[in-house]
Amino acid sequence: MHALTPNVQGFMYPNEVELTWSILIVLYPFITGLVAGAFILASLARVFNIVAVQPIYRLSLLTALAFLLVAPLPLQLHLGHPERSFEMYMTPHRTSAMAMFGFVYLWYLLVVLLLEIWLDYRRDIVLAARSRTGVMKWIYSALTLGSRNIDAKSLHVDDRVGWMVTLIGIPSAFLLHGYVGFIFGSVKANPWWSTPLMPVVFLFSAMVSGIAVVLLVYETVTYVRKRPIDMACLDTVAKYLLYIFLIDFSLEMLDLIHRMYEASESFRTLDFMVHTQLFMSQIVLQIILGTLVPVGLLALVQVVKPGEMLRRRIYALAAALTLIGIFFMRWNVVIGGQLFSKSFLGYTTYKMAFAEREGLLPAIALLILPFPILWGLLKLLPPWAEQKAG
Amino acid sequence: MDLTRRELLAAAGKFIVLSGAALEAFESPSGALAADSKYRMADHWWAMTIDIRKCIGSGNCVRACALENDVPEGFFRTWVERYEVSGEDMEHPHVESPAGGIHGFPVRNTPGVKSFFVPKLCNHCAHSPCVQSCPVGATYVSPDGVVLVDQQYCVGCGYCVQACPYGCRYLHPTKHVADKCTLCYHRITKGLTTACCEACPTGARRLADLKNPRDPVHEFLRVNAVQVLKPEMATGAKVFYKDLDGSVR
Amino acid sequence: MWGIFEGWEHLIRLAFVAVVLVLAFFAIRQVVIPAEFGKYGHYRPGSLDEIAARTPVFAGREACASCHVDVAAAKSKGPHANVGCEACHGPLGRHAQDFTSQKPVLPDTAKLCVTCHEADAAKPKTFPQVVSRDHAGDTACGVCHNPHQPRM
Q: How far apart are CA A28 and CA A76, in angstroms?
């Protein structure tokens, strides 16, 4: 039996004492949220023609790809039988929200993200296949997928089709992350999860986290490359972060106020839980540090308009706090939803393992993993012209 | 003679075990489980009745189930709860289930409260939310009304565990698949009753077959005030309680 | 005629590959899906047979009565008439199959009887229960009561 035995307060149904879903299941919505959010940023440039964010168009796409590649890993680590996970493709049970995961993921990876990246980079890939030597030549040649045609006509076709793909990509991104919210929101057995607002809240918090991570990546990459940053771009990204954050915060407040007002059977137990078990993760980390402080900082910048250096620092701080806040939002949903008994008479605790399959260590590793992948992608497909080596 | 009949049943059982894979190829137009068994799924719609007024909290059912089904320690396919309800405060009963009641209950004679035992198990819901949630089709309602888990197919995602409003499911700690009460499917298809009903000393728990016109369940449902757990969830629960107090969750 | 495809070759090739992959997916699916999946519902019908194939551990009271006729008769006249044999004697499926394969262990009445009959407020008032300490001190229940016909 487990060495880590949870502490039970009050009464839990006997099978509820040990949590079924661990920190890995917190990670999955967090990571796919980053994907969806980064992609929305890219679509602001491509579809909505927000010129100011053009400079980070490619960076957003690559960031989304790096995180999307890592996204299935926490799930595979969690599954009791990951070797059977193909069953979701073979016999998806259409009444199950989770059954759609495999298809939505594949669709988004192949038809949206990879296709768009390929179409946008095709000219650079072909040029590199021509000019590079050795192993890199082979890699770029493979990436051309057999077609070296980069005349004006084909590039025009790429541009038009790419635009269409980005257009389709927007509802696809909504679907990729909205259905994760629906996976939780449709569980009638769990009153912490069961609300029609869940997909919407997940989606907006995804957008917030995605924009924040691209902002941080942009600032970091620019710093490392020792290049001047495009402040108009950064300011615009920060503004969108603020606006969408305000919508996200309003939605979460709506949910809270609604629960408090209706005060149905589960409310008392949930309220108690928020003030005790979840106090640190919900009140302090998610709401205060993770929402109110970054929103305050971003709003302050809009009003006070400080100088460039200060703005960059504030944006970086706000983005980092945002990421922490959204991570804990996922934590509070997934873990919080399992801390209270469905009898509404008790609580348990989450004993997080450390160096086990579903422990903290693999979780940290999975959070770090997208960054070396992104680094590799940035080397392979540099977003900015002057970075291309001869 | 009886011994011979049992031997025949045992031999049939061994035959089924040994040729389990081959069975899938058999055409069974009646829906029978094995070519040589007399059990027809279409003739049954299984349920259970529990009479709260008869339960004495012996824990026999929990022990019997654990032995019959190799239930892993710390997890429960069935369990018993003890309730203590004081007067008007139905929203705050004192409830306990020490190790699911597997060793019975320590004596408590709290004054001024109404106290009783509530055995619980999978409700084998007709509109099961756990079946709805399974992404691959590893859990299902059988044609005879039993909610089962195909442990050779289950991926162990745990979604069904989250979806069950009654807390009757868990992930098996060593098999890493979903596990829960099977209504002793391997017994009821052989004409036996479930292990918990067999072991219950007072007859509080009784297996019921709603499709059998001679089953006492019909009289039971007609004559008594009957409840299911969490009716607001509209799960079509098929464990029917007699005299279940309103404070029971 | 091929003029309209000018500039599209790379996408046409990609579309072709996509179609091949989709067809391959369906082909693989046909092979990999378990036999008769979906026959009764969205599941593998073989699972029903596998679950039903388990060997029962408890024999059931009818099995006991078929050999232990005298005990069954005596018990049926008393208050333990509806208490299954294995409720006290534990699972005896193997013994019922082949009585030499499993030797039943006689329960210890000093410990067994109180699990049901120790007085507790939660038990129904009509159920026979005693405070064992007051009722019998340290004496085991079986000293005075015959478990098969416990009424004295």
A: 10
Distance CA B18, CA B74 (A): 32
> Measured between alpha carbons, how far is C15 from C13 in angstroms, rounded to an integer?
5
Q: CB–CB of B182/B1 below 8 Å?
A: no
Closest by Cβ to B79, choosing from A14, A79, A87: A14
Number of domains within chain A: 1
d(CA C92, CA C76): 20
- Which CATH number characterizes residue A276's domain? 1.20.1630.10
Exposed e or buried b per residue across A190-224, where buried means at least 16 C-beta atoms within 10 angstroms of its C-beta: bbbbebeebbbbbbbbbbbbbbbbbbbbbbebbee
Q: Count the helix, strand and coil residues of chain B and give each as a percent rounded to the nearest 5.
A: 30, 20, 50
Residue A117 covered by a domain: yes
Q: What is the 3-state secondary structure (H, E, C) of A253-291?
A: HHHHHHHHHHCCHHHHHHHHHHHCCCHHHHHHHHHHHHH
Residue type, A187: V
- Which of A107, A154, A161 has the highest number of chain C CBs within 10 A, making it the mutation to test binding with C? A154
CA distance B36 to C93: 22
Quick check: B176 contacting A, CB < 8 Å? yes
Q: Which value, in Å, is the radius of gyration of the alpha carbons in chain B?
A: 19
Residue A17 lies in a domain: yes
pLDDT in tens, chain B (249 residues): 445 665 555 555 555 444 444 433 333 333 335 545 689 999 999 999 999 999 999 999 999 999 999 999 999 999 999 999 998 788 889 999 999 999 999 999 898 899 999 999 999 999 999 999 999 999 999 999 999 999 999 999 999 999 999 999 999 999 999 999 999 999 999 999 999 999 999 999 999 999 999 999 999 999 999 999 999 999 999 999 999 999 999
Has residue A228 been placed in a domain? Answer: yes
Number of DSSP helices (H) and strands (E) in chain B, helices first: 8, 11
Touching B: C residues 56-115, CB under 8 Å: 56-58, 60-61, 63, 66-67, 82-84, 86-87, 90-91, 96-97, 115
Question: Å from B40 to nearest chain A CA?
Answer: 27
Radius of gyration of chain A (CA): 22
**Residue at A362 is within a domain:** yes
Calculate what percentage of chain C has a pLDDT beyond 70. Answer: 97
Give the H or E element holding residue B48.
strand B46-51
- Intra-chain end-to-end CA distance of chain C, in Å: 106
The CATH class of B44-249 is alpha beta
> Which residue in the block uniquely carries the two structure tokens 């969108």?
A240
| Residue C111 C-beta-side C-alpha neighbours within 13 Å | 6
Q: How far out from the chain centre does Cα B163 lie? A: 17
Q: Tokens for C84? A: 């299954």
Alpha helices in B53-194 (DSSP H): 60-69, 129-133, 159-163, 185-188
Residues spanned by the domain of A268: 9-387
Per-domain boundaries in chain B: 44-249
CB B202 within 8 A of CB B212: no
Q: Please tell me which of the candidates B33, B58, B60 has its beta carbon nearest to residue C48.
A: B33
The predicted complex's ipTM stands at 0.91
Q: What is the DSSP letter of B77?
A: S
Q: Which H or E element spans position A208?
A: helix A197-225
Determine whether the interchain pair B175/A14 forms a contact, defined as Cβ–Cβ distance below 8 Å.
no
pTM for this one?
A: 0.90
In chain C, where the domains are located: 2-52, 56-106, 107-152
The answer to whether A208 touches A326, Cβ cutoff 8 Å, is: yes
Cross-chain residue pair B137–A93, CB shorter than 8 Å: yes
